[in-house]
Specification:
With 220 residues, the protein is of the alpha+beta class. It is built from eight helices and six strands; from the N terminus they run βααβαβααββαααβ. Helix 1 runs antiparallel to helix 2, helix 6 crosses helix 7 and helix 6 packs across helix 8.
């Protein structure tokens, strides 16, 4: 279990590039699995090397996603708090379904993008108007940030609701980080040594700020 972060807006062309890389990986796996050879055979090992390279190439293309284990996210929040990158902000109250003319059952389905066995199409713009309004209210709650944020709302890096971290929050958090590390470069060296994913996380934050922010999904 862990935390999955996804960019709000994928970089142009990335989906197509990932699909192409995935096909190459699948072809390499199919070739490997079709070999009637033992695992330690030189030809099998050579093909396995190609599979590994194809997988690495596929993962390198996908910049929309970032993953941290539950433990690493706990460390991440502690480090970000130390660097002044997080702020304590109370989220908006969850909208009441009844206020939008829908039932609690329909509300549970509203955020989903495919409704199995449900008699009404709830996907995208085909959803009933009241469901679309409720879905919009949910998104406003999940993405709300102060007009001039001073960092990322701490609650957005926890839970399974899909909180949206906005570009404004990210820029403020990165500014606080740059200020903090400039005053204590020795601490940064310790951070990188103990949390080897930290430089990639900072790069991901910069990347996300250019693509609408990111959404967080973690354990309930």
């Amino acid at each position: 279990m862990g935390y999955d972060m996804y960019l709000v807006r994928a970089p142009e062309g990335e989906d197509a590039a990932y699909d192409a890389a995935s096909r190459l990986f699948d072809a390499a796996v199919e070739h490997r699995d079709g070999l009637d050879l033992p695992y330690d055979h030189p030809e099998y090992r050579a093909v396995q090397t190609k599979v590994n390279r194809a997988y690495d190439a596929m993962e390198a293309v996908r910049t929309t996603h970032f993953y941290l284990t539950t433990w690493a996210m706990s460390e991440c929040r502690a480090l970000m708090d130390h660097f002044g990158m997080l702020i304590a902000t109370r989220p908006l109250d969850r909208p009441a379904p009844e206020a939008y003319g829908i039932t609690s059952g329909e509300a549970a389905l509203a955020p989903a993008f495919e409704m199995l066995g449900f008699p009404v199409d709830y996907t995208g713009d085909a959803a009933p108007a009241q469901v679309q309004r409720y879905r919009k209210a949910l998104e406003e709650r999940l993405s709300w940030a102060p007009p001039q944020p001073e960092g990322i709302a701490a609650h957005k890096l926890g839970g399974d609701e899909g909180w949206t971290v906005t570009p404004g929050e990210i820029h403020a958090a990165l500014a606080a980080y740059e200020t903090s590390r400039a005053t204590n470069p020795a601490l940064l060296s310790e951070v990188i040594e103990d949390a080897d994913w930290w430089p990639e996380w900072i790069d991901y934050l910069r990347h996300a700020a250019r693509h609408g922010g990111f959404r967080t999904y973690g354990p309930p």
